[in-house]
Amino acid sequence: MEKEPLIGKTLDALQLLAKSLEMPAYTAKQIAGWLYKKKVRSIDEMTNLSLTQREKLKEKYEVGCVTYTRKQQSVDGTRKYLFPVSGNKFIETVYIPDKERATLCISSQVGCKMDCLFCMTGKQKFSAQLSAAEIINQILSVPESDLLTNFVFMGMGEPMDNVDELFKALEILTADYGFAFSPKRITVSSIGLIPGLKRFLAESQCHLAISIHSPYHEERLALMPVEKACPIAEVVELIKQYDFSHQRRVSFEYIMFGGLNDDLKHARDLAGLLSGLFCRINLIKYHRIPGINLPATDIAKMVPFRDYLSSKGLISTIRSSRGEDILAACGMLSSKVFLEQK
Fold first, then answer.
1. Is residue 333 within 8 Å of 107, Cβ to Cβ?
2. How far apart are CA 155 and CA 153, in angstroms?
3. Based on the domain organization, do 19 and 120 belong to the same domain?
4. Inter-helix orientation angle 194-203/163-174, to 10°
5. Are residues 234 and 133 in the same domain?
6. Which of 5, 18, 88, 178 is the least buried, fewest Cβ under 10 Å from its Cβ?
7. What is 60-122 written as a DSSP string?
């Protein structure tokens, strides 16, 4: 019989588990401490549980950590890991060191349903939702687990399309019984899937990043099919209902394509769309992917674009690319491609 993983379970779930095994209620917090603070790999290591309790646990459960199967390292120090998940499928996770910061880029799905024109993950298509256990395993099973300072849900998949499992993982990351990270150290990226986004805005204090890429409906629709169901104008109006003027932050990711969305007219109308919203804009160089004829813009076009936005009071930065040589940069993750590489 296949055993159920303990990682990915919230304290409430562990309390129900303890009750079902006729263990004291406080056992749940003990188990959580072993999983998320001491990061044990086996139930036998949970030494403040009695031998009988450990044996009971082992009948149905295992810690559930799964080791990566492949690793690639970029010339800039970025590392990409390939993790197996259920159904003989794989996901990618990226570790990005930067001075005092050590960021883990986490996947939430195998592939992606959203099929954005410029994204290699979308070309892989959608295969499966990740469970909270498979999300948390990425954090526990990268070799740099104890060094991590920040987390971005910007890996494979659309987090707002897997919101129940996302919220379990976010609770474990931020709760005192879990990893106890501040929500300020966590950013969740979305293309603006409104149903999940509404819940996230109402219930989470983590940072939000919205992929925007064009201020115009028809142009964004050509790049991102989600624009039909979730127009960016509606997404922005929804976000404007919440306060981002204090510690919680919203940013907009803007990939720049040469001759398409990199002129000052776009900058002007982008500034108009975001007017009145306390936010920042990250300008990103397009990373070419096979089979898609989209040109990358030149840095000479990015600088005046940034400067115009800044002149309108919008914090704007040109984001440096990391891990492009190992296909670990923005829009380049694809476990299918990773597996095909020799």
1. yes
2. 6
3. no
4. 20
5. yes
6. 88
7. HEE------SEEEE-TTS-EEEEEEETTTEEEEEEEEEETTEEEEE---EES-SS--TT-HHH
Residues 205 and 85 placed together within one structural domain of the fold: yes
Q: Do 298 and 201 fall into the same domain?
A: yes
CA distances from residue 271 to 119, 310, 311 in whole angstroms, order as listed: 25, 9, 10
According to DSSP H, which parts of 187-231 are helical? 194-203, 217-223
Q: What is the pLDDT of residues 284-320, one digit of tens each?
A: 989 888 888 899 998 999 999 999 999 999 999 998 8
Number of separate domains in the chain:
2
Tokens representing 1 are 């019989």
Residue with tokens 């971005």: 152
C-alpha distance from residue 98 to each of 24, 59, 92, 252, 320 (Å): 44, 43, 20, 21, 11
On whether the pTM is more than 0.85, the answer is: yes
The size of the chain, in residues, is: 342
Torsion sign over Cα 293, 299, 305, 310: positive
Looking at the structure, do residues 41 and 84 belong to the same domain, yes or no? no
Please write down the HEC assignment for all residues of 109-121.
EECCCCCCCCCHH
The structure tokens listed for 259 are 């001759």
Give catalytic residues, as residue numbers. 92, 330
The C-alpha angle with vertex 323 and arms to 134 and 264, in degrees rounded to 5, equals: 110
Q: Please, how many CA atoms are within 13 Å of residue 198, restricted to the half-sphere of its CB?
A: 4
Which of 45, 62, 79 terminates a domain? The answer is 62
Q: What is the DSSP letter of 225?
A: G
Considering the domain architecture, whether residues 194 and 104 belong to the same structural domain is answered as: yes
- Residue 278 sits in a domain of what CATH number? 3.20.20.70
Task: Return d(Cα 72, Cα 81) in angstroms, integer.
Answer: 7
Same domain assignment for residues 155 and 242: yes
Domain carrying residue 318: 70-340
Taking the C-alpha atoms of 196, 198, 202 and 207 in order, what is their torsion angle to the nearest 10 degrees? 70
**Residues 198, 58: one domain?**
no
Two tokens at 252?
């907009």
User: Tokens in use for 24?
Assistant: 């004291």
For the segment 150-187, what is each residue's pLDDT rounded down to a tens digit?
Answer: 999 999 999 999 999 999 999 999 999 999 999 999 99
